[in-house]
């Protein structure tokens, strides 16, 4: 018996997707992203390293607004380094299109309002967004 057919549902750091928001330059800007999670080993290793530094606060469950902000800012750095792999249509204050680089991405994410960054984070942490062949899920009567 074999279940290798399930391999098509696996996600790795090699998978890519495009994320866009109407709030990024009117929706014409696109971020080319990799999954954020254990599927992306470099991202996950860097995340665990940063998490170890915050272990005491995590264990005491001292989730303050400052802690949440610090966590989001840590993610901004990790996303620039390991999740966002490129972009199209990102413009600066002068209206010029900015070529992608990790440093430019760090600057971009630092200025991105938290709620927009959180929307990108939500997208990148959803493995289904990175599956090559999405599964059609049928609704079952009575559920």
Which structural traits does this protein have?
globular; 5 helices; 143 residues; single chain
Describe the protein in words.
- This protein is 41% helix and 8% strand.
- The protein is mainly alpha-helical and 143 residues long.
- The protein has one domain: rbstp2171 (2-Layer Sandwich), CATH 3.30.2220.
- The chain starts with 16 loop residues before the first strand and ends in a 19-residue tail after the last helix.
Overall tally of domains: 1
Strand order of the largest sheet: 1-2-3
> How many alpha or pi helices?
5
Ranges with pLDDT <50 over ≥5 residues? none
Offer a concise description of the structure.
The protein has 5 helices and 3 strands; from the N terminus they run E-E-H-H-H-E-H-H.
Topology overview:
Blueprint lengths: L16 E3 L10 E4 L7 H13 L1 H5 L5 H19 E5 L13 H10 L2 H11 L19
Antiparallel strand pairs: 1-2, 2-3
Helix pairs in contact: 1-3, 3-4
